[in-house]
């Protein structure tokens, strides 16, 4: 069997690759209508398609991993991501890019599956530190990937972004195939296809309403139909899942206090993280003449954002050691406090570039500790046969938080904007309200974290497990 350090390293690289997909198109997002000869409403699907695919596939991939082998499903997801990257790289029109970006979204399921693999193969003393490292890649990949994307965009054709993604995915595929051991701990039974379809339809409806509501109008028939329709489908899905012997997700396990409260905190933490991803780059890049920006180039701005990812990576071993001594609950509390301080600092000090740098470093501390704690809390509360599906569900809740942040903060900045050189740009008031929203979400995460039971749940062995 490969050395455990090599397994952790490969899964960390896979996590970086996964999170990088979400900042891949940031440098060209504003230019997409021109590059793809399409309307801005149509090019918004380049981002929305990735979001929808990630949210739907992640919990389903977790269950498939529990049943058919976690490494096998990781390889499948990497292959889908590579295929999507090649499709987008070869496309000159919007349809191919949207299809490619949707397929790239599948790779998001790699991180919760990787965390579940760590629980299966690592010595107990190494699990917490390894999980902290893999969890950190959720933020690190985006923070480190942004300057790479910016550099490629400034120096070359935009298609090279997708060729780079395809090459990175191929490298990860080979490393996983070579280093990560085959999963031997599996849950027997039949896959719940009806449950998977119901979850997909319900999530797509709700996420469409959240992500496109600002553009469609929050009270428009399209928003209400997709949002309320998705909610009804999810309620029916939950009723169905509770009444079948082999559900896609065991909602009784998901309803355990530690799991439920961790997932609620994940929504709030996801909101706080993505709000910072929306707000700080815009402040850095807006022209000084607008009265709300610093006029940096995208590449320069990305170097201000990047240190937060480095902080997440550096803190991962600290998070692991602290979790072993005090339990993961304290990590989540510290993480939420750090983010509250970050937004509070920004509300008081945001007149210099270094103020934004300090705030982003605090965000890095918060996400580094907060995201590390969540899978640890989940895995202390579910049987080993449910680790893939439960971590996938937790990743889904984080996605709901990030989706909500994109929609809500986007709506606030659009509402508080002024005309500048033929375009609408956010005002200082819009940014201030967005800081308050991000900080409020962090406060909610802190309060919820305080109520999470600290005691480890008994780790029963599922009767259908086979070695």
Structure in a nutshell:
The chain is mainly alpha-helical. It is 76% helix and 3% strand.
Describe this structure in words.
The protein has helices at residues 4-20, 32-36, 40-43, 45-68, 70-90, 94-104, 110-121, 124-155, 159-179, 193-216, 221-241, 251-254, 257-285, 298-326, 328-348, 353-379, 387-415, 428-450; strands at 186-187, 417-420, 423-426, 465-466. It is an all-alpha fold. It folds into two domains: 4-182 and 248-456, Growth Hormone, Chain: A (Up-down Bundle), CATH 1.20.1250.20; 192-247. It has a two-stranded antiparallel ribbon with strand order 1-4. Strands 2-3 form a two-stranded antiparallel sheet. Helix 4 packs antiparallel against helix 17 (387-415) and helix 10 packs antiparallel against helix 11. The chain is globular. Mean pLDDT is 86; it is low at 459-467.
Largest sheet, in brief, is: 2 strands, antiparallel
Query: What is the strand content?
Result: under 5%
Overall geometric form: globular
Tally of helical runs: 18
End-to-end Cα distance: 16 Å
Membrane topology: Multi-pass membrane protein
Protein name: MFS transporter
Organism: Microbacterium terregens
Subcellular location: Cell membrane
